[in-house]
Amino acid sequence: MTSMSTGLARLRGVGLAELDATVPLQVREDRKHVVSLEALDELLARLAPTHAALEIAGRRRFAYDSVYFDTDALLTARAHVQRRRRRFKCRSRHYVDADACSFELKVKGPRGETVKHRVPYAVADHGRLTADAQAFLAEHIEDVPDLAPVLQTTYLRTTLAGPGERVTIDAELALGTVRLRDGWVIVETKSARGAGVADRELRRLGSRPVSLSKYVLGAGMTRMPALPNDSRQVARRYFSHA
Predict the structure, then answer these.
(1) Ordered alpha helix ranges (H), 24-84
(2) Packing angle between helix 229-238 and helix 214-223, nearest 10 degrees?
(3) Beta pairing class for 62-70 and 148-162
(4) How many CB atoms lie within 10 A of CB 234?
């Protein structure tokens, strides 16, 4: 990760309050790319004039630990595979370095955009679905199914803020027993229309968005008899079982 650290050093730092005030983006279009470390270094050089990196107590990479909830039949994962109009994912997320936690719900909006809802959660409840979490889900979706924890994901995340967009860079990604191969990171752009500066620079570097849901891929590789069709190419090229 030396090249990533060098690339990040080109960007100015930004605090969490400034990041949230500049680009909250609870409603956005997300585009994911699997990027080599060499291409990432070039991308960071191109974004340096316009983007800043989230920095807290001198850190620019932060450990995330998320637990996803689903039914025994993987109802929410299968709804995403089948691209159902009304679908959702929910998880508890532990921000390890800050020792803070949140419960998050992502739903698809009427135009296909991602709408994210989030509430604070007790660290002691991470990985559990409490009565408060169930009530929170009931506020936003109808007929909440019987959910239980099914997949834990961990990674190191760097967050960039640019003109009307955020960019996240996830390294050392683990999806249960599945690992992202060495030499690669997941770059995700988040903007109101999916057409930010980072999207443009990724295209210029020859990178194209891929269909990649961490949860669906992890659940598919660890809990489904066959991986969903649109995940197979990405899984074969970039992921392996530990």
Answers:
(1) 37-47, 75-81
(2) 90
(3) antiparallel
(4) 16
CA distance linking residue 171 with residue 187, whole number of Å: 9
Which position has the token pair 């649109």?
230
User: CB 1: neighbour CB atoms within 10 A?
Assistant: 13
Please give the chain's pLDDT, 242 residues, in tens: 556 767 888 899 999 888 877 765 555 678 999 999 999 999 999 999 999 999 999 999 999 999 999 999 999 999 988 888 789 999 999 999 999 999 999 998 777 777 889 999 999 999 999 999 999 999 999 899 999 999 999 999 999 999 888 999 999 999 999 999 999 999 999 887 767 899 999 999 999 999 899 999 999 999 998 888 878 999 999 999 98
79 is written with which tokens? 């709804």
Q: Output phi, psi for 2, to 5 deg.
A: -60, -45
- C-alpha 29/C-alpha 165 separation (Å) is 10
C-beta separation of 101 from 123 below 8 A:
yes
**What does the block give as tokens for 218?**
């992890």
Cβ–Cβ < 8 Å for 146, 128:
no
Tokens read off for 201: 């620079």
